[in-house]
Specification:
elongated, Rossmann fold, 13 strands, alpha/beta, eight-stranded mixed beta sheet, Nonspecific Lipid-transfer Protein, Chain A, 15 helices, 434 residues, five-stranded mixed beta sheet
């Protein structure tokens, strides 16, 4: 239960000011000192990070073995916001765009981050755990913090019973060897994974009885250099563009052997290319469902995913972790994080070249003809990269397109919360006729 500590004059504390009470501050310090997850992440850590609000400051001093929490603003990196913003941030399930530092920076007026950006990138995973321990101090029971403040799904990893094989296809004037897999019986859904990840994102959908009950099966494939597909470039040289992406999808369609037109499903960069497919090849699909998609997304490139002083296997999944809703089941979110940690050198950055800036259909999105293929746009409430507002504006420019915001979901709907996503996906699927 949230602690209530009155300040002088009987005014209730707001935001970080709540830690002006010695019992809460001591409890937070004790949690940081005893937390095994934090202890495993600290070796090599060095830096000072401050969170500031009007009239109050807290600094986190990181070292190899400990976190020193002091009530001052002496730091290398400062995160500043209003008391109300921090108050929302410190909730167990904050409101959209208030749940993560990167979300605050991109979408919340009144928040600023100033100082050593490199140090922030190097320690993002440590800071996230410390802030989770702060939330647990305010809202948790008098016991050690769980490994994740997200809901616990239970039951372990899915068993999709997928059958996979490699196929050779031609795109952009050259040959590629890609891995694809399929599970279930029924009308096919062709799932396209997100930037820097792979087709394992669809395993929980593949194994879900609700989707099978709706008469659908799932096929997905790994882009070149992703997951189990063969590399297509020297390490660090991968660069995805619209033409190559579209030809890879059409090449897979030609070579996989679908018995009927599939429904095309993607999210994030693959949601964008779903819109491209609606423009250039709508007759190839029974329907197109573009999640977390809009005609153009700016501001999502980062120098830290390939920086020589930043561990990309930690930073890249941390960069995308805040794109997931805090309500998403812990096991699902952990799988998304792990898949991103396994990406090859330069793969994520090469994909983002397409996602943020490379893809720009503002001058042609209105040409999509939904009479040739039904089009639905679905975007998660907590997505701060492609917001629901972005997708709604795009959908409004396409005659006949349908848009719906998915409450309680973030940027990776089919991977981060498949149970909830199916509430939105199944109504968007074409109804099978006898």
């Amino acid at each position: 239960m949230e602690a209530e500590v009155a300040l002088k004059g009987n005014r209730m504390p707001i935001g970080w000011e709540k830690f002006s009470a010695a019992p809460l501050l001591d409890r937070w310090r004790a949690l940081c000192a005893s937390d095994e997850i934090l202890r495993s992440r600290l070796p090599g850590a060095v830096g000072r990070f401050a969170v500031l609000q009007p009239g109050f400051a807290t600094t986190l001093g990181l070292s190899d073995t400990s976190v020193a929490i002091s009530l001052n603003s002496d730091a290398d990196m400062r995160f500043t916001a209003t008391s109300a913003i921090w108050d929302e941030f410190l909730k167990t399930h904050p409101a959209r765009h208030h749940h993560h530092l990167y979300a605050l920076r991109m979408r919340v007026p009144g928040f600023s981050a100033e100082g050593d950006e490199l140090a922030w990138a190097q320690h993002a995973h440590i800071l996230r755990r410390i802030f989770d321990l702060a939330r647990w101090t305010l809202h948790g029971a008098d016991r050690p913090a769980p490994t994740s403040l997200r809901s616990q799904l239970g039951g372990g990893p899915p068993d999709p019973a997928a059958k996979g094989r490699y196929v050779k296809l031609r795109a952009n004037g050259r040959d590629f060897i890609v891995y694809g897999e399929s599970a279930g019986q029924g009308r096919p859904i062709l799932g396209l994974h997100t930037a820097g990840s792979d087709s394992r994102q669809f395993h929980r959908l593949m194994a879900h009885p609700r989707l099978a009950g709706a008469g659908y099966a799932v096929t997905a494939f790994d882009l070149p250099g992703h997951g189990r597909s063969a590399p297509a470039a020297e390490p660090g040289a991968w660069a995805l563009d619209t033409e190559l992406y579209a030809e890879l999808i059409l090449g897979f369609l030609d070579n996989w052997g679908f018995a009927e037109k599939p429904v095309l499903l993607g999210a994030s960069m693959s949601g964008e290319v779903c819109l491209e497919m609606a423009l250039r090849a709508p007759e190839r699909f029974a329907a197109i469902i573009a999640c977390e998609a809009s005609e153009h997304i700016a501001g999502r490139r980062t120098p830290w995913a390939d920086h020589p002083r930043v561990n990309a296997a930690i930073f890249t999944p941390e960069w995308i972790e805040g794109l997931m809703a805090p309500q998403s089941p812990a096991e699902c979110a952990a799988e998304v994080w792990w898949h991103y940690s396994q990406g090859g050198c330069g793969i994520f950055s090469g994909d983002i070249l397409f996602y943020s800036g490379g893809w720009d259909a503002r001058d042609r999105i209105h040409r999509i003809d939904t009479r040739k293929c039904p089009l639905t746009l679905l975007t998660g409430e907590y997505d701060y990269s492609c917001t629901a507002e972005h997708s709604a504006v795009t959908a409004a420019k396409i005659p006949g397109a349908r848009f719906q915001r998915m409450d309680g979901i973030g940027h990776f709907p089919f991977a981060e919360n498949p149970d909830l996503f199916l509430d939105y996906l199944i109504p968007a699927l074409p109804t099978r006729t006898a």
